[in-house]
Amino acid sequence: MRIAVIGHIRFAVTEPFPGGMEAHCASLCRGLALAGHDADLYAAGGSHGVDNDRAICERPYEDVLPWAEWRGTVQLEDYQRSAFERAWQAVLQGGYDVVHNNTLFPDLIDWAARDGVPMLTSQHVPPFGKMREAVLRAAGDPLRPVTVTSASQLPLWSERPANMHVVHNGIDTELWRPATDRPAADRPATDGQAQGPYFWSGRITPNKGTAMALQAAHRAGVAMDLAGTIEDESYYAREVEPLLDARRRYVGHLSGERLRRQTAHARALVVTPAWDEPFGLVAAEALSCDVPVIAFDRGALREVVGPCGVIVAAGDVDGLAAALRAPPSLATGMARARAERKFSLAAMIGGYETLYRSAMAAARGMKAVA
């Protein structure tokens, strides 16, 4: 198939990835290519592999109209509309079999109906405002199927559309691999200490609960490394930085092999959202490295982690500290087997391919009737 993948334009799709949506777009394009498809990514300028013809806008909108300052304004809406209108015209002229929409821009869903274009929309966040309304306008339309990233998202739709399906995000399990020099979870390291520090990875912002992870590390008396983009500098300065010391370190915004190595050597990955995570990509990445996960019970994390870690009551810093004092001990290979079975690129692409084909069949049916 020839597939146009349209990405969110808040950030460029390039490493180090600012967040899960950008990492997902990169993994999606890689997975489609590995499956033999011809996929073109339409994304903000500066995105990896995106030439000028497929750059939706010269610069990501976060560089021009930062979301925290311009959220809900006419200026930000107009910036996005102009960018996505250009992208849509390029898609219409590109001879694609199907479009995969990974944006938060609602009009694309309506444009697909107007122009008879088969398009799968993947919802990477909980339903909100205009995007929710656009998905509901497409309810039941086989031309415009919708996916959510976890079963935990379905109850958030009081009127679940008949064309809504669950397809878990996938990761490249060939890149996210166990460390060959890391002691097994049920064996002590050569120095008699448990392997590696705990690891926290993600956007440093209040809704990711970074400070709560550090508070728990202090109470438990354990080492922890943090990595990720500092999205909210005032939050970092006020609540995160004062908790850093020789044993609780910020190691930077890591990319590629450095991030994978840090994850693979962790004693466990710690995930502390202060909102209902629609998926939790970092948890799946850790499982693929055969690393257990200790997480707050928010959103999809229980669904992703399964038996391969410890789930703590949401926001319970003392409970998190207790879990850090006694990390889970899993049989070697248990976490990775779960990732390979449920969260691999092949599993994700297989789910998407089924929906691509059904949308394409609906488009053919419309043309036959016309």
UniProtKB/TrEMBL annotation:
Pfam families: Glyco_trans_1_4, Glyco_transf_4
A single GO molecular function term of this UniProt record: glycosyltransferase activity
Annotated ranges, domain Glycosyltransferase subfamily 4-like N-terminal: 18-174
Keywords: Plasmid
Entry keyword annotation includes Amino-acid biosynthesis: no
Gene3D superfamilies: Glycogen Phosphorylase B
Keyword Phosphoprotein: no
Top-level taxon: Bacteria
Protein's name according to its UniProt entry: Glycosyltransferase subfamily 4-like N-terminal domain-containing protein
Organism for this UniProt entry: Croceicoccus marinus
Biological classification of the source: Bacteria, Pseudomonadati, Pseudomonadota, Alphaproteobacteria, Sphingomonadales
